[in-house]
Design brief:
143 residues, Lipocalin, single chain, 9 strands, alpha+beta, disordered N terminus, 19% helix
């Protein structure tokens, strides 16, 4: 009986810690993040390529307290390369962006989140013209 009681207390403590950690991520992630670079890996059945794209100054992801986001990414020539706007949520160490401009949902694993650093990662697999591929993208941001 004592062991069952201790196990249930341990389980509840772990559940509380997980909820607390999710709350910490959801709170810590709020704010404007400057996008430094994007690392992209593309693999198919015959090759593997990786590329690092540095975002121009002014590129950012702004995660607002009301659960909405705005993003703008500029290339080195200061041309707008990508923009986004919509809603976001943080669940189980994942950042989910629901883009209302492109009608698209993206889920990123939160790899690093500190006061001044955010690193997120996403992977996608598929097939084009009977060729299987995998794409992995890691985005590095700072405040």
């Amino acid at each position: 009986m004592l062991i069952a009681g201790l196990l249930s207390i341990g389980f509840l403590a772990c559940k509380k810690d997980k909820n607390s950690q999710e709350m910490d991520y959801a709170t810590k992630i709020i704010g404007k993040w400057n996008i430094e670079k994007l690392e992209v890996i593309f693999e198919d059945e015959e090759s593997s390529e990786s590329e690092t794209e540095y975002a121009a100054e002014g590129s950012y992801l702004n995660l607002k307290e009301n659960g909405t986001f705005v993003s703008h990414i500029y290339d080195e020539g200061a041309e707008e390369w990508d923009t986004g706007e919509g809603k976001y949520s943080v669940i189980d160490k994942k950042l989910i962006l629901i883009d209302e401009i492109y009608q698209d949902n993206d889920t990123f694993d939160i790899k690093t989140l500190t006061e001044n650093s955010l690193i997120i990662n996403a992977e996608d697999e598929g097939s084009i013209m009977d060729v299987d591929y995998r794409i992995e993208m890691t985005i590095y941001m700072y405040r």
